[in-house]
Amino acid sequence: MMRTASTLLVLLAASAMAQTRQVRVRIDTDEQADTFSALHLDHATCSCGRAHAGETVDVFIHDATEEDALNDAGFSPVLVHADTEAFYRSRLTSFGARSGPPTFAQGSMGGYFTFMEMILYMDALQAQYPQLMAPKVSLGSSIEGRDLWMWKISDNPGQDENEPEVLIDALHHAREPGTTMTACWLATQLLQSYGSDPTLTELVNEREIFIVPVTNPDGFVWNQTTDPNGGGLWRKNRRANAGGSLGVDLNRNYGYLWGYDNSGSSPTPSSPTYRGTGPFSEPETTAVKTFAEGRNLNAYFSMHAHGGMFFIPPAHENGTFAPPPYDQQYAAIAAGTTALGVGYATGTVWQLLYTANGGSMDWFYGGLYGGQQCWAFGCELGTSQDGFWPATNRIVPIANDGVLFCRYIIERAGPALASDNLAVMDTGGTVPGTWEAGESLSITFDLANDGTQDASVTIAVLTQSPWLQVNSAPISVGVMPAFGSTSTSATPLLVSVSPNAPSGATVSLDVVATALGATTLRTTITRVVDAQPVTAADHDFESPAGWTVGLPGDTAVAGVWTRTDPNGTTSQGQAFNPEDDHTPSGTQCWFTGQGSVGGPAGAQDVDGITTLVSPVFDLSNVALPEINYWRWFATSATDTLEIGLSNDGGASWTVIETLSSTQSQWNEITVQVASWLPPTDAVQMYFRAADSPNNSLCEAAIDDFRITGIQPVASINVTGSGTIGSTVAVALSAPSYGGATYYLGAALTAQTGFLLPPAGRVPLDLDPLFFAVPLLPQVFSGFVGTLSGLGGGSGQILVPNDPSLSGLGLYVAGAVVDLGIPAAVTGGVRIVVP
After folding, report:
1. What residue segments make up the domains of the chain, in order of their start?
2. pTM
3. How far is the C-alpha of 148 from the C-alpha of 212, rounded, in Å?
4. Which of 220, 229, 225, 224 is nearest to 247 (CA)?
5. Of 247, 179, 173, 243, which is closest to residue 211 (Cα–Cα)?
6. Cα 420 from chain centroid?
7. Alpha helices of 746-805 — where are they, by DSSP H?
8. DSSP summary character for residue 436
9. Rounded to the nearest 5°, which phi and psi values hold at 328?
10. Are 816 and 823 in contact, with CB atoms under 8 Å apart?
11. Is residue 534 pLDDT above 80, yes or no?
């Protein structure tokens, strides 16, 4: 094939500099896919595998002969990066060389640890937590004599206990340093959260967890040698092969169906998926095999990069699944990961990528202990845009995602309890759904064991409320098999509300399920005696419902929030914009930019910053308000979806969440308003999607927004214009507390409020106005008094005739004290002097 002189010069220059070029190739037909796969090139997207017709594939070009082969085969590669290592380094922050244990995400390779830094970091954790983490143990040596280090975490790490065992490894492929960081981050979270996070504490107590952060130390060290600032792209180990090539793909060297065919692994030594001369020909895979065969592992999880995928076995052939009943059980575990909110695709490797044989996941699944004895899983961490060396500021978000998967697998290595359809039936009262004094409560729910081991389960109700009486002893549900479920409708848990429970008293109980080897399942239910449920807002967005777009600081030139029926978009197999809204009977939702049907994902995604703003909600007379909504968010890099909450009509905002990881499916989110701000009559929320700088794909969507709560036992109403020289009337109503003492108060702000146990949080800050109110009876009259027999009280605010007060805002709230005990708080009503 003829080439221009300039093309030849470019190829020669690339070869001379030994830089890795990244090029993009279009595969149009099955014949082209076969031809392309036969070239055994090094894939730049996800991992190395078979291409398919209709795809574009990025590959790494390590020398001129590889690009010659592409051109000779009839392809027209398009340059993506002339120096891929330099591209990756450009996204990394330099922290310099370290002499001691590094801070997480501040390793000398652009935030990533070197091999020695990883050892120093993990050893420092072990020295800090010797009661939970055993000293490192070498599983064996690599080709070049480096140790494959393993650390064990458990409540008695120096003993072999009869507990489910889990092996988690990383970096089979040397250019996937984010997996090593995730393994280190997992150890950090397990140890630092022990004693404070109940679930993590129980996982450490009930499991034996083995972590191998680097399975391919020689390849890893080679990358840090050639590219000490990060970005190295060597994949295999450093085996000297016949013919002069180097390296075996360790994740094609395991014994289960090793060499099954030449598409799932390669017999060619120079191929990036070269499987070696035989199963377990490499000392690294042999070391893992020897360790596993000497243990009683119940679960295995191998981390790779990149592409945002969670894998179940097998991987060796299209159309193959685990034999029944394992096929459905593996599918159930994969489906359960969607609740993590990470947004990874799930399935077998051949469903999501390509066929692969000789992989570690398949050997643990099909070969270890004779097969079907160890539950095996894998993942590709990070997005396709993250690549093999994600930007430094992506290390922690990706590690957080990985830890979620690790926790999920660790828990399911034994019994794992879950519940659904919890219902509380109240009898003996006058208003259904309301807990009233003297009523009986019957609690039922569906219980499931989502884990891989049987469990003997006990359920119970616990409460510390003086107004609740538990009438059921703990109930044995019996042995629940792995992946089994049952209903407790035949054995309801019984509770009664004391006949003396005062109206307005806050009561709570915990529904608890326990089993040996399982983390405790606990559901807390909180109610207010005599309070009825209320709905303060219910927006399915089939109409605008008062929502608006835009706040100061918005810069978006595309992808601005819009409300209509969305057109779904995808990029490299990942969904970005939703195809449908969430409302079953609806079609519309708020989302960021409407692209054309079948158009590219980047045509109308967010470019800049765009903010969706709710109307103002009056929650001053809603007790325990809870915001519930469904959202969607997808990013190809480091974009964010920021959620803000205000209780002063947007005059000030509190950021309650910043989402930076992809959740490209509808996820239900719940926000307890009082956990962030005291509820007032001026509550507002915003959703701010930001792709700034504009260099990646970013999409967000919101649907089915509701605010619910319960009727308070006390309420407040303010009337009057608030103009200078006028009178504002404040009416307090607490029908259950006729004759009780009431207090009214006013303050300039209500950002934090203050606690008045046991009644709750008063929506007033302790600012100068709050303390001045008792000293100004001529302005604030009737602010202390006794409720009438019907529970009514009133006060007045005489706005001084002072023009300088124009624009002043203040909040008014009230409290009821019965028999010397605070019984109820209410208010947070805002008054603004015109």
Report:
1. 5-82, 115-412, 417-528, 535-710, 715-832
2. 0.79
3. 7
4. 220
5. 179
6. 21
7. 768-772
8. -
9. -70, -35
10. yes
11. yes
The three-point CA angle 22-343-206 to 5° equals 115
Give kind and range of the element (H or E) at residue 217. helix 217-226
SS3 call for 49: coil
Residues 6+ apart with CB under 8 A from 130: none
What's the rounded Cα separation, in Å, for the pair 650 and 667?
26
Shared fold status for 5-82 and 715-832: no
Average pLDDT over residues 738-763: 93
Which tens digits make up the pLDDT trace of 24-44? 888 888 888 888 877 878 887
Annotated catalytic residue 85: no
Which residues does 536 contact at the CB level (< 8 Å), separation at least 6? 617, 618, 619, 622, 625, 707, 708, 709
Beta bridge partners of 718: 730
5-82 is classed in which CATH architecture?
2-Layer Sandwich (3.30)
Q: Across 450-505, where does the E strand assignment appear?
A: 455-462, 468-470, 475-480, 485-487, 493-497
pLDDT in tens, 258-284: 999 998 999 999 999 999 999 999 999
Write the secondary structure of 232-251 as one string of H (helix), E (strand) and C (coil).
CCCCCCCCECCCCCECCCHH
Listed in sequence order, the residues at least 6 apart from 470 whose beta carbon sits closer than 8 Å to its beta carbon are 461, 462, 463, 493, 494, 495, 509
Position with higher pLDDT, 528 vs 543? 543
Q: Which tokens is 385 given?
A: 């845009």
- Across-strand partners of 444? 423
Whether residue 314 is preceded by a cis peptide bond, meaning omega within 30 degrees of 0, is: yes
pLDDT of 11 > 50? The answer is no
Instruction: Report the 10 Å Cβ neighbour count for 83.
Output: 16
Quote helix, strand, coil % in the chain, to nearest 5.
20, 35, 45
pLDDT at residue 46, rounded to an integer: 56
Model confidence at 287, in pLDDT bands (50, 70, 90)?
Answer: very high
Model confidence at 695, pLDDT cuts 50, 70, 90, reads: low
- CATH 3.40.630.10 matches 115-412: yes
CA distance 594 to 558: 9
Does residue 51 carry a pLDDT above 70?
A: no
Q: Count of residues for the chain? A: 834
Q: Tell me the C-alpha distance between 573 and 576, whole Å.
A: 9
Sign of the C-alpha dihedral computed for residues 718, 723, 724 and 727 taken in this order: negative
Identify the residue whose tokens are 């295995």. Answer: 300
What CATH class is the domain 535-710?
Answer: mainly beta
Which of 176, 380, 411, 439 is labelled catalytic? 380
